[in-house]
Amino acid sequence: MPSCVSDTPPSSLFDRPPDTLPVTAPAGLPDGPNLITIVTDDQGRWAMGAYGNREIRTPSMDRIAREGAIFTNAIVATPVCSPSRATWLTGRYPTELGITDWISPDESRSGLGLKGSTWPKVLQRRGYRTALVGKWHLGMQPQFHPTKLGFDWFYGFLGGGNRPMNPTLEVDGKQTKLKGPLPDLLTNAAITWLRQNKDKPFALSLHFRAPHLPYGPVPKTDSAPYAKLAPTVPKLSGLNQQQLKRRTRNYYASITSIDRNIGRLLDTLDELELSNDTIVLFTSDHGYNEGRHRINTKGNGQWMAGGVTGPKRPNMWETSITVPLAVRWPGIVKPSMKIVEQVSNIDLFRTVLGMLDVPTPKDCKARGVDFAPLLRGVPMPPRKTLFGQYDLHNYGLAYLRMARTRRYKLVQHFHARGMDELYDLIEDPSETRNLLRRAPKGFDRSIAVGLRQELRTWMESITDPLLTDPY
């Protein structure tokens, strides 16, 4: 089993090329479980029934949590798409990969894309059949194609966006105009591949574009449950309540369209008698706001007060970084298990290998820890601090670094004055009171000093370019 390591590996690891894996042929076919990972796009943790939302309909997502484990304190290292997905696949921080914001079309044409070792590549070399169905958004040039980075088969789209209905997808290497809802088309392809590979050890990744804007159109069966719903939305001054309710209804419908298709996939596992031998991991690439903090979307969200779209508010609020995370692992994970320890998507490279009992490559550069022992019911030393970063450069400019403990979160805005943030996540879970500006009487200001030092030590450990940036 891969060993757990600290989030700051020894400096000797930096002496090896980050994208090198030993090429060794597997001794035989893997005898571990199969793996299905399901990733949604822009789904806040609050937008799932298992996390307490009684208005949204997510029975299939909730089934994964009910029959497995649900994590109540899972975050991502970066609250926007491309860097978060890069971290998810490599266990590396965005600045280590050169992907610090979502990859724009111009950047794709200029040659930006994912470089480095991925866990699908490790599994592929161990004898797993691997497939990616859906969104990539990690480079569009040939050298960054999913089939170059660990996937035997790809069906989906390389860029960041697509139509929720009647999309154009890469099918057998060719751009093909298709008819139908995008989540259904992706799930159809995933099920077909699953049927074709059911007798081999497999690792299937299903990456939905939904519920990313635009939310619709979606099939009527998915929107009908919300036709008369007056959803609960943030009641903050300046927000257009009717507009926000309409947006939330459409957002919920998009998530329900995913959920219906996840149900089809789970039913197929049952039909093929694969459920007991397959780990199913469900998560999102980052969180979402939809009016929380008076902004839309995520870490690059825009002010939406007054019913209009305003300037960006770069952020690492909890609503932007916390994600749903549920893992069903029959025979290992006890049903309805709740895991409260802090975990991050930086951990998933090592954790995927840990769940499958695949050794970590000797010169692996992945950060994070293998938290598979938690799923097995084995206690682990609590994580004191998790870290994150976001360098916004598309339609704005910001350089954010984050240190987060179970109680406090520091967000440092580099190259800006008066913007740093410190929140007490227990006393102020909605992050409405920046303690660096409005601290209560008697507040221990050494907390911020300590977090700043931890943040700097972490930045040094990953050779963060902000430490030497002459800007």
CATH topology of the largest domain: Alkaline Phosphatase, subunit A
CATH superfamily of the largest domain: Alkaline Phosphatase, subunit A
Unreliable residue stretches: 1-25
Strand content: 15-25%
Tell me the overall shape: globular
CA distance, first residue to last residue: 44 Å
Taking the sheet with the most strands, its summary is: 8 strands, mixed
Structural classification: alpha/beta
CATH class of the largest domain: Alpha Beta
Overall mean pLDDT stands at 93
The helix content, as a percent range, equals 10-25%
**Would you identify the CATH architecture of the largest domain?**
3-Layer(aba) Sandwich
What pattern of helices and strands is seen along the backbone? EHEEHHHHEEEEHEHHEHEEEHHEEEEH
Total number of beta strands: 16
Strand order of the largest sheet: 5-4-8-1-9-10-2-11
Number of helices: 12
Short synopsis of the structure:
Helices cover 25% and strands 17% of the residues. By secondary structure, the chain is α/β, with parallel strands linked by helices.
Describe the structure using short key phrases:
471 residues; alpha/beta; Alkaline Phosphatase, subunit A; Arylsulfatase, C-terminal domain; 2 domains; eight-stranded mixed beta sheet; 12 helices; 16 strands; disordered N terminus
